[in-house]
Amino acid sequence: MQRRAIYPDLAGRSVFVTGGGSGIGAALTRAFAHQGSRVAFVDIAETASRELVEQVAAEAEVSHRPLFLPCDLRDIEALRAAVAQAAKAHGDITVLLNNAAHDERHKLENVTVEYWDDRVAVNQRHVLFAAQAVLPQMQRAGGGSVVNFGSVSWKLRQGGMPAYTMAKAAMHGLTRGLARDYGKQHIRVNTLVPGWVMTERQLTLWVTPEAEREIEAGQTLAGRVMPENIADMALFLASDASAMCSAQEFVVDGGWT
Ligand SMILES: NC(=O)c1ccc[n+]([C@@H]2O[C@H](COP(=O)([O-])OP(=O)(O)OC[C@H]3O[C@@H](n4cnc5c(N)ncnc54)[C@H](O)[C@@H]3O)[C@@H](O)[C@H]2O)c1
Fold first, then answer.
1. Taking Cα atoms as reference points, which of 38, 33, 37, 29 lies closest to residue 11?
2. Strand partners, 9
3. Domain harbouring 15, CATH code
4. Full-model pTM
5. 244-256, pLDDT tens digit by residue?
6. Is 24 domain-assigned?
7. Which atom of ligand 1 sits closest to the CA of residue 49?
8. Ligand 1 binding pocket, CB closer than 6 Å
9. Nearest to 99 by CA among 31, 50, 8
10. Each residue of 65-113: pLDDT tens digit?
11. Is 1 part of a structural domain of the chain?
């Protein structure tokens, strides 16, 4: 595990991650577990999630075994039940990482109403309902931090997935509205905007030599944005180190946009 800052206020905190079983979410689960947080995460990828729990639990310095709760986020009742289960196990949730999404490519002309509904259910709807379920717990606890995950894709005018880019752009509206409604209760809401992050899925599906050249030309920084770089920003946004940051977007894209 790479060396990273330790935020003492994150130790023991009840953290809830959506899509925490693979990709960027796995880096979030691991990074918060290494801070001593009590991490619960939901995911549909059961095998990957269970393997992650075993790996992280075995790592040095991890005092609380992450709790995997199988859940399809398209099912809002199942999400609500998972939030309740996480709180029962770990106490009131004070960090919510709304990370889950799926960047399936699609052409506008092929989008049916059913497909649209499904993409919104996967990429957008659960974010609001996760916040709705968790915010009373943050109020009771005296504060908290919600991090909604955006994307540089629409900022870069990337085509080929209009339902996805629309859902990701919507994160900013939700962030700023909730930040206003809950800020006086010490609840902060921010959008974390990842650049092109080299998860295994991205490397397998999309990162061709041509894409590598595009990244090279686009980013101002050398090197690749890794899931751990996103997790580092999430730790900062969750911790008191960002105590007066709310209603903002924090971009981790190697200086591309
Ligand atoms: N990887 C990138 O380059 C990139 C770029 C910009 C934004 N993002 C954003 O970062 C976040 C994480 O991206 P990622 O690349 O790790 O995504 P990913 O697709 O690799 O992983 C998302 C996780 O969510 C889970 N998931 C998907 N659908 C689910 C459902 N219906 N119910 C429960 N879990 C479900 C998946 O199993 C997976 O573990 C997303 O919000 C994405 O939009 C990623």
1. 37
2. none
3. 3.40.50.720
4. 0.98
5. 999 999 999 999 9
6. yes
7. 39
8. 19, 21-25, 42-45, 71-74, 99-103, 122, 149, 151-153, 168, 194, 196-197, 199, 201-202
9. 31
10. 999 999 999 999 999 999 999 999 999 999 999 999 999 999 999 999 9
11. no
